[in-house]
Each structure stands twice: as structure tokens, then as C-alpha cells.
Design a protein that fits this description.
Layout lengths: L7 E6 L28 E2 L4 E2 H13 L7 E5 L17 H6 L4 H11 L6 E5 L9 H7 L4 E2 L8 E3 L2 E3 L23 H16 L5 H9 L3 H6 L2 H14 L7 E3 L9 E3 H7 L3 H8 L6 H9 L3 H9 L6 E4 L6 E8 L2 E4 L8 E5 L10 E9 L4 E9 L7 E9 L1
Parallel strand pairs: 1-4, 4-5, 5-6, 8-11, 11-14
Antiparallel strand pairs: 1-15, 2-3, 7-8, 9-10, 12-13, 12-14, 15-16, 16-17
Helix pairs in contact: 1-3, 5-6, 5-8, 6-8, 8-9
């Protein structure tokens, strides 16, 4: 038994994607866009009351402060990526004061201020990579912000937890850009997807539109062709209702006072593959970064953490796909342990709460020195009657 550790239970949640009031699609607010384009909202017609469920879940945590010690938000809390190309992107101030988000924001504020005995941590993601640290800390007094240059890692008790987007080609901060110019091409892909969603009223995820076309140019991506990235974005934008000269309004982001055209964006990121190879963020090749974008991130957990023995438990968000993988070590090699409950290393993804996904999921970890175990659980919130439904569980020995 490790007597230096104390019993601790943590909740990891990510990819909430709260939008502003305009994104709800109220009549008369944005007549050009008749349908709501936000990813997290109360949809009474389809009985997906996701904002209400999130607020209820936070109520549940605060009502059980004797059981839970910490809540860690792994990015994509406030969203300014999901906005049609023809609208100015929102500000985080507007998201924070949007009426539909009131209960959720109030609960996070209450938790941050330590009105309840739960520590609240915030790790930035890609959809909220631009809010300055000062905004988060000023708006949620007492919150513990983890991050530098839009990237942060929560590290405690053999855990490494981060958003995960820094390992992907389309959503990592633009490599080699000048200070203040960090938005990746994924920002513009999300803008195009929101354009289609707002016009057609069908749930459209930026990842889905990316997958629709990426394999058409995959051979060129492997070769590092500049034409591949240009053709890819142009195809995505055209499919989502844009034209090459369509403006994407920026409202001052990245120093763009008014707008940038679809064609200008395509040309701007045409050299992304070569730029990535010059810098190789995290030692990843551009091809690895493409694969990380289109597959799960458990390979990243293995290479960046487990093989280097930098953490025993790794938790990511970003993919919107809840999952858990266990690994055991024999000599210098890691082996998949899909059926083992006790593992040497565990990777888990917290999933998402957005409307297009079936479950509202989160990761729970429980360090129990008395049992010499550190449990990792994938859980889902179904209702106030079933707030803690365990879907899978593994543990490491401590």
C-alpha cells in the first residue's frame, strides 16, 4: 500500500461546445440562417435536452462533494468555431452570457469559487484555443487554468490529461505561424460545416465533412503535395454551400478585420504539410498527424506517454468518441489488453455531450491507496435518476 497517496475521485469532461444566443436559431436573430447551428442545446422536439442535462449533472456533482474531489474540463467548453461563414464569429463573452447557458455557467462559477468543496480545472481545447487565460480566470474566479500557448496537460497521481488536438494535423495550432496567428485549418472547416448545418437544419460536424473528402486526396497528402490541402478545403467549402469567392467573416480574428475568401484560406494552408515537417510538433510527422485526425488517439497515448513511462493513465477528449484501452508491458514492449481489468497502462477518452451523439459521457478516476488501485471508468449521464452509469472499468496497481 502506498501511504503517501490519499483517496481521490476525479471527473474529466470535455467537448461541451457551448455557443452564443444567436446559434440557437431564434426567429429574427439571423434570418439568413433558419436553423440552429450550435452543437449543444435543448432540443425539445427530439427530446435531447443536453444543456439541461449538463446543468443537472453539475448539480449532482455539487450535491456529492464528499465523494468527488476535482472536476477537470478538457477543452472545447466555449465554442467560437461553430459559426456559419457568413456571420461574424462570436466572442467568448457572448457565449458566457447567453441565456440558454445560464445554469451551466452559474454552476461552473459556483464550483470555481469554492462555494462547494470541488476543485475546478480548465485545460484549453482547439474550439476554445483563443480565449486568453485572463478571460477564463476573470470570468470564473478561482478556476485553475492549465495551459501555455493554448495547450495544457493536467498531471497528478500518474495521470496525464489533455484535450488531444495538438497531435492532429487539422486542429493543432498552426505550426510556425507568427504570434497571434494560431488558428488551424480546422477552424475554417468548422465554419463551412456550420454554414451547411444552419442552411439545411441537418446535424453537420466538421469532422464528418473532413472525412467525406480526405480519402480523395489521401495519396497526395502522403506525398506532401501542397495541392492536396488546397483541393481538400475547396471541396469541403463547395460541398457546404460556399463558392471560391465566398467571404468567411472574421471580426478581427487573426488580424483579419473583415473577411477572408474560401480561395484565400485554401491558398493560406496549402503549405501546411511542409510547414509541419519543418517543425514536427511533438516529434510527429505530418502523416502521423493525419492518421491521428482520422483515427483514435490511443496510439498517441502509447507513443507520447506509455512507451516513455511518463504516465500510467492518459485521458483525452477531442475525438467525441468515448473509449477505453488497456495495455500491459512485457520487457520493452506494450501489448493490448482488451479483456484485462488490471492493466499497466490505461487510455480513456471522455467523449462528448453534443446533440448528435447518443450518450453524454465522462471519465471518472478513483485513486484508492487502501486497495492499492487507481480505477478508471467510462460513465454516462442519463438522467437525475441515473447520473452515474458505468459503461466500462479498468484499474492500475499503485
Amino acid at each position: 500500500m502506498n501511504t503517501s497517496l490519499k483517496k481521490t475521485k476525479r471527473i474529466f469532461i470535455s467537448d461541451l461546445h457551448m455557443g452564443d444566443e444567436r446559434s440557437q436559431g431564434q426567429e429574427g436573430v439571423s434570418p439568413k440562417y433558419p436553423h440552429p447551428y450550435c452543437w449543444l442545446r435543448d432540443d425539445k422536439k427530439k427530446k435531447r435536452l443536453r444543456l439541461t442535462m449538463l446543468a443537472d449533472f453539475l448539480d449532482y456533482l455539487m450535491a456529492n462533494t464528499g465523494e468527488y474531489n476535482e472536476l477537470i474540463i478538457l477543452g472545447d467548453l466555449l465554442d467560437h468555431w461553430v459559426c456559419p461563414m457568413g456571420l461574424n464569429p462570436t466572442t467568448f463573452e457572448k457565449v458566457a452570457v447567453a441565456p440558454q447557458n445560464e445554469r451551466v455557467i452559474a454552476n461552473f462559477k459556483k464550483m470555481a469559487s469554492r462555494d462547494v468543496d470541488i476543485d475546478l480545472y480548465y485545460v484549453p481545447g482547439n474550439h476554445d484555443m483563443l480565449p486568453p487565460r485572463t478571460f477564463i480566470e476573470d470570468y470564473f474566479p478561482g478556476i485553475q487554468f492549465i495551459g501555455k500557448d493554448n495547450i495544457g496537460v493536467f498531471s497528478q497521481d500518474h495521470i496525464a490529461a489533455e484535450h488531444g488536438s495538438q497531435y492532429t494535423l487539422f486542429c493543432a495550432p498552426d505550426p510556425g505561424s507568427a504570434p497571434g496567428h494560431r488558428l488551424p485549418i480546422g477552424f475554417y472547416i468548422s465554419r463551412a460545416a456550420a454554414e451547411k448545418n444552419a442552411a439545411e437544419g441537418k446535424p453537420v460536424d466538421g469532422f464528418d465533412v473532413l472525412m467525406k473528402f480526405i480519402f480523395d486526396v489521401f495519396k497526395d497528402l502522403v506525398k506532401g503535395s501542397e495541392a492536396a490541402m488546397k483541393e481538400l478545403f475547396e471541396a469541403i467549402a463547395l460541398d457546404c454551400g460556399g463558392k471560391l469567392d465566398s467571404p468567411i467573416y472574421m471580426n478581427g480574428l487573426e488580424g483579419i478585420k473583415d473577411s477572408i475568401s474560401v480561395q484565400e484560406v485554401a491558398e493560406k494552408y496549402a503549405g501546411l504539410l511542409k510547414k509541419w515537417e519543418r517543425i514536427r510538433p511533438n516529434g510527429l510527422s505530418s502523416l502521423q498527424a493525419v492518421f491521428n485526425e482520422i483515427s483514435e488517439l490511443h496510439g498517441v497515448a502509447k507513443r507520447q506517454y506509455f512507451e516513455k513511462d511518463k504516465a500510467k493513465i492518459v485521458i483525452f477528449g477531442h475525438t467525441h468518441k468515448y473509449t477505453m484501452e488497456g495495455y500491459n508491458k512485457l520487457g520493452d514492449h506494450l501489448y493490448d489488453a482488451p479483456f484485462d481489468k488490471c492493466c499497466d497502462y490505461i487510455y480513456a477518452n471522455s467523449g462528448t455531450w453534443i446533440n448528435s451523439h447518443k450518450y453524454c459521457t465522462y471519465v471518472e478516476t478513483e485513486l484508492d491507496p487502501g486497495e492499492s488501485k487507481h480505477h478508471v471508468r467510462i460513465c454516462r449521464y442519463d438522467s437525475t435518476d441515473d447520473p452515474h452509469h458505468v459503461m466500462s472499468e479498468k484499474y492500475i496497481k499503485v
